[in-house]
Every structure is written in C-alpha cells, then in structure tokens.
Amino acid sequence: MxxxxxxxxxxxQTLTLSGSAIENFSCTFTAAxxxxxxxxxxxxxxxxxTVTITNLALTGPNGNIITGGTPTHQAITIxxxxxxxxxxxxxxxxxxxxxxxxxxxxxxxxxxxxxxAASPLDLSRLPAGIYVLRAQSGPLFQSLRINNF
Length: 149
Known about the structure:
The protein is 0% helix and 45% strand.
C-alpha cells in the first residue's frame, strides 16, 4: 500500500509500506514562524480504518511545537475522504474532519439528514434537488453544495 505524505509544499513523497508499517519518516525544512503548515497523509480508502499514528513529533528550534514553545495552534485535525452516494449512482468525495457531525439541508434550508462523519452518507434516496452539506468539528465548519439529480 502506498501512502502519500505532504507537509505544506515541503516533503511531498509517496511512501510504500513494507509489511504493515512505515517505520520512520523524517522531513527537514525551514518555515517562517507565521507560516501555517498542514501535514497530509493520503491513505487508500479501503485501508483507512487500519491507520495508526504513533510517536508523532513536530519539533522546532525551541522544542516540540505541538506541546511546547509558544505555537499559535496546538490542534491536530484528522480528516477522512468521505464518499457521498448520489441519486444517479455516482459518488462525490469530500475531505472532512474524522470527528465531524455532518448535516444535510435542502434548498429551503430544512435539515433532512444528520450523521457523524464516521457513518456512510447516502443521499441516493433523497428527492432530486440541490443540497447543502455542513460538516462541523468543534468551532470549525465547512460546507459543500451537492447537485443530487
């Protein structure tokens, strides 16, 4: 299984699992203290439930930037590629926080579905129309417009 790893625009690599684990991955770069970085691990959908991250450490000149120093953000958000099943039998993918609550609203603003991000999102049985999906995880939310015809 191949896992794509990207840290901002730095260290874009595809790592191949040997056995069942990537034993060690290291990325060295220089970034401004005001630059936001996003670590992205892209794992094939059929293997998502088997991913475990242990001993994750992001370190800088002043020590560990997750738990020490004075970082501007100290949160790690794990996202998953959510497949949305539509009326026409196709699927649309949406990158959402793993622990998010997903709400589906019809064009009139009425909530028609509420699910956790962990459960499947099947819109194929809803009436044809335009829907707005909202994923909320803590104070953060994102939305997506779906044409379900």
